[in-house]
Amino acid sequence: MIIGVPREIKDYEARVGITPAGVKALVEAGHTVLVETGAGEGSGFPDDAYQHAGAEIVGDAGYVWGKSAMVVKVKEPIENEYAYFRKGLVLFTYLHLAPLHGLTDKLLESKMIGIAYETVRDRHGRLPLLMPMSEVAGRMSVQVGASYLERERGGRGILLGGVPGVPPAHVTILGGGIVGTNAARIALGFGAKVTLIDANMNRLRELDDIFGGRLYTLASNSYNIAHATREADLVIGAVLIPGATAPKLVTRAMVAQMKKGAVIVDVAIDQGGCVETARPTSHSDPSFVVDGVVHYCVTNMPGAVPNTSTLALTNSTFPYVLRLASLGACEALRHDEGLAEGLNVWRGKLTHRGVAESQSRQWTAAASAIAQDSDQ
Which residues pair with 56 in a beta bridge? Predict the structure, then answer.
């Protein structure tokens, strides 16, 4: 198979879909890898490292997309890349389609095969390709929040961990999954007072054990969320419903009641955000203020640390890349139900329930869509 690795063109996105080590493994398995010039530069992987591993370095993005049977990326395609879409091309990347009606339309119109990292599941039902970036984003959210609490960035002028004689900042985390757990770990390490809210009582019990009672836990309901956000200096949105739009747990009215100069970091913004006043931002223009509250809603937070993020991501994605290349998309999806959970679009059919419900569209189960296509 010919596998293409284009350079990411989203704002300040320097991660890359495959490392030189991955190229070497693919070439040894008999595949051809086309890497766009500069694709890995921002992650610390220069063109000569890819060339030494056996890749063909290509200067034209259109050539990479046009000649490849499968394109491996990090972030969802943006409008400049829609022209490269074509029937039967396999795209393996983060898609986050729930809030992206336009991209969904283009993928369906082109009859591509779109497999989304964020909805692939393993045999235990976990999300193995979302996990590494959730770990990075969770840890980064506290660093970012601490920075924006500084006065010069619009914050309240509070040191997250306080000092002797001065209390620490209050951090409220919405969601006890991978993002929330990692955010709690870093916030507690800073010395902050941390409250975590989740709807799953068993998960709250687990977190209470993990953090030895140092973490305040609350059951998720509108009353508790309103109270906790009103008291918070930093709110971190870490809610996830795989493939679907995130629920708006923090309302505009709640934001209006928060402290002036408080900070919201909505990590759920890829899926529409869990704060009503949140909207997607970029690394070049990362924040805005609503009712005196600073909002940081960058859709590709891990892109700020591309070396760490690329290595963490490709450690998890590469076995799937190799399987797709070796078996072809159809056979790989048939043999791996967890990988099939990642199938969002198949040759003109929407195949993920969460995306379909978020966009009020019809959908076809992945196995059924593949079978129907094979029968024609």
Answer: 34
Distance separating alpha carbons of residues 178 and 206, to the nearest angstrom: 13
Q: What is the pLDDT of residues 340-376, one digit of tens each?
A: 999 999 999 999 999 999 999 999 999 999 988 755 4
Helix (H), strand (E), coil (C) string for 205-262: HHHHHHCCCCCEEEECCHHHHHHHHHHCCEEEECCCCCCCCCCCCECHHHHHCCCCCC
User: Which residue numbers are catalytic?
Assistant: 96
Which domains does the chain show, CATH number per domain? 2-119+306-375 (3.40.50.720), 131-299 (3.40.50.720)
How far from the centroid of its chain's Cα atoms is residue 8's Cα?
Answer: 15
**Residue 374: its pLDDT value, please?**
59
Contacts with 95 (C-beta within 8 Å, 6 or more apart), sequence order: 76, 103, 114, 116, 117, 118, 344
pLDDT above 70 coverage of the chain, percent? 99
Single pTM value for the model: 0.90
Residue 360, Cβ density class (10 Å: 0-12 exposed, 13-18 middle, ≥19 buried):
exposed
